[in-house]
Design a protein that fits this description.
- By secondary structure, the chain is of the alpha+beta class.
- The protein has 2 domains: 49-181, no CATH class; 185-302, no CATH class.
- 33% of the residues lie in helices and 26% in strands.
- It has helices at residues 9-25, 44-47, 51-73, 126-136, 183-200, 231-238, 242-247, 252-261, 293-296; strands spanning 26-30, 38-42, 78-81, 103-106, 112-119, 139-142, 149-158, 161-167, 177-179, 205-210, 213-220, 225-230, 276-278, 283-287.
- The chain has a 5-stranded mixed beta sheet with strand order 3-4-5-7-8, with helices on both faces.
- The longest helix is centred in the N-terminal third of the chain and has 23 residues, at 51-73.
- The chain is globular and about 55 Å long.
């Protein structure tokens, strides 16, 4: 994902495309119960696509779902696609087997996790989930430690309605590989995407306080969204020189201290407004009118 910003303005267009892809293909529906729960379903736009287009979009929806599951259900703030490290870590193939999981993640206790994401444009696919389970077993150890958990995630549709299935496979394969990941590099790379965005939108970044927590927030007026980062984390990255950034000289203990002080480890207990999503990684997304519940309950071509 860090390559999303490799080509500056054109990379920004790519980011907008990925966001609007979700906007165009998913919508909400009120369940009608007193809790005001909402379900997610396909839009007419999604249903009109040809199979190859649906597969491509389902792939990205699967990645998005896995990130949400990791953060909200398993309290794993930091999740990175393993392919980011294919050049810097020793990812070997066993007997030509290139199969491996999509993601590795770490929590604030320095415990590693393995995730494989599958997205399907149709109904639940048991074979696909079994394949995902097999892929999670292809890693044995990360930096000398066994993963605390392996998780296979499949997003699919029951009729028009979006659903997610998860399973936690046992152990690892005998041929599974070990990889070495530097935690500081991992954390630094995780935030590179949002810090690059904030740097790119430097003239549109402003401080914002939400429930006593300070953020530095960029206005993405092109897509009616604001994306920000908790201010102390922001300062931890932006106070360094370019030379220091490349060497990852920020102190990991300072980073963890920030997370604890601001209660970001228990992010689910922090109440935010309906138009906001606050991740336990300190990243906040603020939706403007284009993304509100009323608008997202309509087909894309009927939204204002």
């Amino acid at each position: 994902m860090t390559d999303v910003w490799k080509y500056n303005q054109y990379s920004f267009f790519e980011a907008i495309f990925r966001i609007t892809m979700i906007y165009a293909n998913l919508m909400t529906q009120n369940n009608g119960n007193k809790n005001k729960d909402y379900r997610i379903l396909k839009t007419d736009v999604y249903k009109s696509l040809d199979p190859s287009e649906k597969n491509a979009i389902s792939y990205f929806i699967g990645l998005m779902s896995t990130k949400l599951i990791a953060g909200r259900l398993f309290n794993i703030p930091w999740l990175m696609h393993l392919d980011v490290y294919k050049k810097s870590v020793n990812i070997k193939t066993i007997n030509g087997d290139k199969s491996r999981p999509d993601f590795i993640g770490i929590n604030s206790s320095n415990k590693w996790f393995v995730f494989e994401a599958k997205g399907r444009s149709h109904s639940f696919d048991k074979k696909a989930l079994n394949k995902a389970k097999i892929q999670t077993r292809k890693l044995r150890k990360i930096s000398g430690n066994y993963p605390n958990l392996r998780v296979a995630v499949q997003s699919s549709f029951s009729g028009d309605y979006f659903q997610i299935a998860i399973e936690d496979p046992d152990e690892y394969d005998k041929s599974a590989i070990d990889i070495e990941i530097d935690i500081k590099e991992f954390i630094f790379d995780y935030y590179k995407l949002v810090t690059n965005l904030l740097s790119y939108k430097e003239g549109y970044v402003e401080p914002t306080n939400i429930n006593g927590i300070d953020f530095m927030v960029a206005n993405l007026s092109e897509i009616n969204l604001k994306i920000g980062l908790e201010k102390e984390i922001y300062n931890l990255f932006f106070d360094q020189s370019d030379k220091d950034k490349k060497k990852h000289k920020f102190k990991l203990e300072d980073f963890y201290k920030i997370m604890i002080i601001n209660k970001l480890k228990n992010i689910n207990s922090i109440n935010v407004e309906n138009n906001m999503y606050l991740g336990n990684d300190g990243i906040i997304i603020i939706c403007d009118e284009l993304w509100n519940i009323e608008n997202m309950s309509k087909q894309p071509y009927k939204r204002k």
